Amino acid sequence: MPLSVKICGLSTRETLDVALESGADMVGFVFFPASPRYISLGVAEDLGRQVRGRALKAALSVDADDALLENSIDALRPDLLQLHGNESVARVRDIKAKFGLPVMKVIGVGTKADLAGLPGYAAVADRILFDARAPKDATRPGGLGEPFDWHLLEGLALNIPFMVSGGLTVDNVADAVRITGTGGVDLSSGVESAPGVKDPDKIRAFIRAVRAIDTKLVNG
Question: Which domain covers residue 177, as residue numbers?
Answer without folding.
Answer: 4-219
